[in-house]
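Appendix B. Chain record.
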Amino acid sequence: MKKTLLYFLTLVFLFNGCSSDNDNNSSCPQTLNVEIISIENTVCGSSTGSFEVLVSSDEFMPEYSIGSGIFQEDGLFTGLTAGTYQLVIKLAEDCQFSNNITIENTDSFQVTTNIQDEDCSNPGSGGIEILTTGTTGVVTYSMNGQTPNTTGVFENLEAGNYQIAVSDESGCEIMTSVMIEQFVNPQLVYDIIGRNCAVSACHGGPQEPNMSKTSEIEALKDRIYERASNRSMPPPESGTMLTDEQIALIECWANQ
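Structure tokens predicted for this chain:
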């Protein structure tokens, strides 16, 4: 019978559960204590990982396998690449226990990023530069699964989240997530409001708030964007209308 593993918060694993045509086999225990002696992660791209487990039993002579179907008398497995291995422990032909043990990558190089956010007055002006240290051979960089380059530079990007895969000749690959945000020079918005809203007959004179002051403008970001986007500022009767580009700049400024 093959049974599955439940984990304790210790270095002892408890195997239990049944999945066999012979669940009534009284010689097969319902649980099995498995001690993890060690787990060694591997350097990214190499085969230096290992783990060792031990079952202490006076009744059985355990055999161990990692999913290959070939069993061995000891629970030591070496020369492993990163990945998840199905550990199978056999006490008898109809009495087996299994679960997974994972060998993780230890990153063999480091990745840092330089980010150029998108200027709302210049759409598609964002950029990403990936820098690495400790790499082996030629390094390739792929953005969102696209064709990789060897420079680590990505230009003409809009605001958004980008997934960058960095690989070197050792076979190591690191994924990094990069967020490009938007920004705009506030003075561009101040000028738009000054020309169209903070005029003597409106918010630059008798009507509060006085938008001739940048402090008032900054305090009213959300209100200004709301009224600009629904085209109630400046009012239609003024004969002045903001362009879509101007409204987009105000939105960008309000959200930064």
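Further analysis of this model is presented in Appendix C.
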